[in-house]
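User: quick one, sequence for these tokens?
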């Protein structure tokens, strides 16, 4: 764990991390959910992320979805691909402030292979009470 005045960074296995309820104003899961092994595991992790978020706080989610994946730059990577709608369904009781299902075009500097990923991205706000 690293602390910098008002930011607390935690590095751990999210599946084993004991998170306290209503602790964080902001929780970011960028590139996390598609690295889990099952939809049930995603549901459990999302529930824990939601529980640790303070009322009125935010979750920022960015994950590969099942629409279109070019994994040529990642030959040994086998992401869990849920639908865009499924990711949103985990947050049906939250306010969705920004939502996109768009392609990310990128070239990694380590292999210079251009490729793309369909990405679900959204910002959700936890309701009060």
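Assistant:
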């Amino acid at each position: 764990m690293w602390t910098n005045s008002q930011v607390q960074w935690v590095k751990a296995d999210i599946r084993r991390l004991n998170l306290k309820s209503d602790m964080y104003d902001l929780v970011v899961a960028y590139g996390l959910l598609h690295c889990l092994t099952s939809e049930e595991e995603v549901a459990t992790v999302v529930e824990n992320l939601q529980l640790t978020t303070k009322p009125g706080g935010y979750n920022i989610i960015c994950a590969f979805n099942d629409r279109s994946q070019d994994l040529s730059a990642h030959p040994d990577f086998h992401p869990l691909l849920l639908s865009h709608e499924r990711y949103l369904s985990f947050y049906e009781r939250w306010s969705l402030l920004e939502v996109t299902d768009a392609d990310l075009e990128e070239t990694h500097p380590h292999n210079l292979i251009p490729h793309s990923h369909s990405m679900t991205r959204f910002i959700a706000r936890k309701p009060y009470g």
